[in-house]
Amino acid sequence: MTWIEVSINTTSEAVDWVNTLLAPESISETHLMPYQSQTDGTIAQSKWAFTFRLYLPNTLVGDRQLRQIVQKLYSLQRTRQISEPKAVVVEEKSVLSTTTTAPLYIGQRFVISPSLPCSAAEASEKKTMGRILLRINPTQSFGSGLHPATQLCLQFLEQSIVPGMQTLDLGSGSGILTVAMAKLGAHVLALDNDPLAIAATQNAVWQNQVESQVIVKLGSLGQGSRLGHWMGNSEQIGMETSLAILPEANFDLIVANVLARIHVALAADYYQALRQTPSRLGGLILSGFTTDYQVDLESALYEAGFRAIACKRQEDWMALLAKPG
Predict the structure, then answer these.
(1) Are the C-beta atoms of residues 137 and 121 closer than 8 Å to each other?
(2) How many CB atoms lie within 10 A of CB 159?
(3) Hey, is 114 helix, strand or coil?
(4) In sequence order, what E strands does the chain have?
(5) Percent of the chain at pLDDT above 90?
(6) What is the mean pLDDT of residues 110-123?
(7) Cα 87–230–63 angle (5° rounding)?
(8) Is residue 66 within 8 Å of residue 10, measured between CB atoms?
(9) What is the C-alpha to C-alpha distance for residues 150 and 145, in angstroms, rounded to an integer?
């Protein structure tokens, strides 16, 4: 059998977008590896950080799937976050190594690493002494830790969580923020309206042994259940995912790493879902948007009753910390 081998170079921040956009395609084999020049095999000095390599059957079905992939990724290609997908027919799949064994250090307290066999896990634990280890396996849901929005959220969380807090992770994706809050001592309700993300979050919770602190549910907060998938990808959502969690002042802290339009639509629900406490900790942590949306988002939060406390920026991406009052 022959295969269509598809190669896509990508920036670090585009990795999660590619994963999430391709999730509905049910690609049987996907590899992610460090970008290498195609001339001598060495790591190139380039804006590209990684390369996706996909394998599709060399059939009419595979041809159709390739066209769909190119169409879905066009916006990322147009904004130069990925290269033009290159497809060749090969007799055999390449033997590839992935990037998933390299730990990723974020902020002052976190290190991200995949789940490993027992002996490798013990060695990894020794290397990460003094940091909180988040075991996150490759997933088709957003939240590998490579995207600036995820990293900014983690930096805010390490400053904001105190043990015993009741928290909400809205749009939990891979489960990375859920696990981080639980390992900081919080109790977490993890919500996502994508069944793939719910499965990924539940798996991350199990792998990190924080089941006693986390509840994972398919749904959204308030009117978020009527807004569709947070990336606007309706084909990932079934009718059964419309569970709405009422915003009833149940949480000390909410973190949401989703698109700006979702934040604007849910500003009032965020306010009603938070407990009105005088503590300097807790509040609302929002990310998933660029600086272009800052004014509109801060305006929506102000109208809902929030005051902005702090913001963090990385490249064009940003995160906001806000509190009621």
Answers:
(1) no
(2) 14
(3) coil
(4) 3-10, 29-34, 50-57, 86-90, 104-106, 110-113, 132-135, 166-170, 187-192, 214-218, 220-221, 244-245, 253-257, 283-290, 306-314, 317-324
(5) 38
(6) 59
(7) 20
(8) no
(9) 6
* CA 236/CA 231 separation, integer angstroms: 10
Give me the chain's average pLDDT, please: 82
Q: CA 177, CA 107: separation in Å to the nearest integer?
A: 13
How many separate helices (H) and strands (E) can be counted in the chain? 9, 16
- Tens of pLDDT, residues 13-58: 888 888 878 876 667 677 787 787 654 444 445 688 888 888 888 8
How far apart (Å, rounded) are the C-alpha atoms in residues 324 and 308? 9
Residue 40 confidence (pLDDT): 46
Side chain identity, residue 290: T
Domain residue ranges of the chain, discontinuous segments joined by +? 3-90, 141-324
pTM of the model as a whole: 0.79
**Spatial CA neighbour of 245 closest among 169, 182, 304, 174:** 169
Distance (Å, rounded) from C-alpha 237 to C-alpha 190? 17
Q: Do the beta carbons of residue 72 and residue 22 sit within 8 Å? A: yes
Q: Which two tokens stand for residue 269?
A: 């629900």
Specify the long-range contacts of residues 207-210, CB closer than 8 Å, at least 24 apart.
207/115, 207/135, 207/137, 208/134, 208/135, 208/179, 208/182, 208/183, 210/179, 210/182, 210/183
d(CA 269, CA 246): 8
Tokens of 233: 């990808």
| Token digits of residue 197 | 């993300």
Cα distances (Å, whole numbers) of residue 147 to 73, 183, 292: 17, 21, 17
CATH topology of domain 3-90: Alpha-Beta Plaits (3.30.70)
Fold of 141-324: Rossmann fold (3.40.50)
